[in-house]
Design the sequence.
């Protein structure tokens, strides 16, 4: 019998959703981390960009504000947080396309996007769904398209080792703190996957992962 995938809200319980933005802001150095992710992605005018697991839309709105001539789409599997994201976009007066969908079953044709970004989403997924999500991202990316991830990762100091020992027991984060994200990206077909840089946060070490889809792929 195939195990059914179960959607996990950002803070595990739906009643905690209102606390999501404050926790990210103060505990995860949200603005600094997300601005750095945007810088690394280097979105250009006219490009089609997907925010994978956009949540309440903070990164999505920041992307549009930083690249107003790009086509920005946010996708998430939680209708409640999508409603919050839409409100943020309206308040910021930016035009963003919002879609309901799961990271491991994206509602888009092949080669739809030039850039895919993801912030603090991957650690919510099971090991199998992480690989499936990476395969889906590779599918919807255009040749030479980039996949830029901000998420928990392997410890890089004594303090982050202590944090990792605690945080790895939460949800599906053991893959992240165990340094298994790069092997999973490569398993999904991203040969150029790399850890670009890391930052310290209150909840643990976060890494910027970068993967580029090959320009020419045999059999595609």
Sequence:
């Amino acid at each position: 019998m195939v195990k059914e995938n179960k959607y996990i809200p950002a803070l595990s319980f739906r009643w905690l959703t209102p606390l999501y933005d404050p926790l990210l802001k103060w505990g995860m150095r949200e603005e600094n981390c997300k601005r750095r992710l945007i810088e690394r992605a280097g979105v250009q005018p006219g490009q089609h960009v997907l925010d994978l697991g956009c949540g309440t839309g903070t990164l999505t709105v920041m992307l549009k504000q930083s690249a107003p001539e790009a086509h920005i789409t946010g996708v998430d599997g939680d209708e409640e947080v999508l409603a919050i994201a839409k409100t943020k976009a309206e308040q910021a007066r930016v035009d963003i396309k919002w879609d309901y969908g799961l990271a491991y079953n994206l509602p888009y044709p092949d080669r739809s996007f030039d850039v895919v970004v993801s912030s603090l989403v991957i650690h919510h997924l099971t090991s199998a769904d992480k690989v499936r999500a990476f395969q889906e991202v590779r599918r919807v990316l255009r040749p030479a398209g980039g996949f830029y991830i901000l998420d928990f990762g392997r410890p890089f100091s004594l303090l982050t080792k202590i944090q990792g020992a605690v945080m790895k027991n939460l949800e599906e984060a053991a893959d992240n703190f165990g340094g298994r994200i790069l092997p999973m990206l490569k398993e999904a077909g991203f040969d150029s996957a790399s850890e670009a840089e890391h930052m310290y946060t209150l909840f643990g070490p976060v890494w910027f992962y970068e993967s580029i889809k090959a320009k020419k792929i045999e059999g595609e």
The chain has eight helices and seven strands.
